[in-house]
Design brief:
This protein is α/β, with parallel strands linked by helices. It is about 35% helix and about 10% strand. The protein has 13 helices and 13 strands. Helix 1 packs parallel to helix 2, helix 1 packs across helix 12 and helix 3 packs parallel to helix 6. It starts with 11 loop residues before the first strand and ends in a 25-residue tail after the last helix.
Length: about 450
Amino acid sequence: MQQNQISMATPVTLPCGQVVKNRIVKAAMEENMADKQLQPDHALYALYRYWAHGGAGMIITGNVMIDATAMTGPGGVVMPLEGDLKAFEKWAAVIKSGGAKAIMQLNHPGRQMPREIGEVAWAPSDVPLSLGRYTKRFAKPQPMSCEQIHQITHQFAQAARRAKEAGFDGVQIHAAHGYLLSQFLSPLANRREDEWGGSLKNRARLLLNIVCQVRAYCGNHFIVMVKLNTADFQRGGFTAQEATEVAQWLAGLNVDVVELSGGNYESPAMQGTAQEGFAVSRKDAYFADVAKQISEQADIPLMTTGGIARQETVQQVLDNGCTFAGMASALAFTPDLMKKWQQKPDYAGIKPECDWQDKTLASLVKMAKVRRQLRRLGNDLTTMHNPTGFWSLFLDILHRRKMTMVYKAYISAKIKETIAPMQPEVTRCASSPVVSDVPSRDL
């Protein structure tokens, strides 16, 4: 969809009929700040209250997991498929308190699950991550059966239904950054020879089925978004042309917005770096050029995220054919960035940097800097302009260890009564809640 010279303050009417007040979206970041019952509590409410009154038109939560035994990390929020929704209702109310649309991102890690979380990572194929000395930090991937794949579809759809019941305006299905649905799309991670692998149509089948079921459960007026890689940024991986085809198929299923990003744990293009031999095309709005190409072929509202921290960059993204510009890390450092732009249009937001030679470790440091800011906001502390990499990583490791202990205690106490296996011979593969604790005060 080509849209030129449109102000970021211009409202948008989505295909589902809902109206978004402007073109700025707070994109998802992984917070790892859930409570002991794997649900949002006062720390997340405090954090999202900053963003709710920061001026964005839509606010997308950090990834909410559909299965308590399949986590991107300890401390994540899980959407329970039954039981009380009061914590999620309050979360939705906080997000919507400033007029933004509340969108819950739903995710499953697939093979990108830390080893400390579980012994088995369910994935399309038994292809492990290739991260050198860091590979063993991730659980061994196990190929999913067809029954498990259908169960995953059901879990995504039920989680979306529950999000709607809690008062969220929509959901975003995470099919990027190397998580489960992205793994199915990628020929590098998906080596299946059945109806779920091989051709692009087969590799996209799970994502398309989930979108259809979410729409069926939640109705035509509920916002349905998809986060999609523009490419894996790896030789033999998912390509920009394939992303264009998938976007066209999603348009045919009345998806409201496709957010374009890229990369995965092996090639973290979403942070501005990629595997050797590949590179993002820009120093900011990393995927804007590819988004422009996709917008010329796919008739669907697009959003791109990655390295956006200036108002000038937002306008470039809109001029390039995107309906929305998404910001993540910049809003962790400056949650009221849009309001600052009203006073000083050339104000530059902060992006986390790390020049360490080890690219994997540098990527972890960048994420640690962001999560440190999120925990500070959740504790009603001011953010830091330039947190040190080493100290941020150290604090993140301590927080992660604490969350892992809480998570294991929860699973140990609740797994027998809250988690039913997908099939008799499979254990630890159904859905339920996830753990965490109130984060300690980071200084």
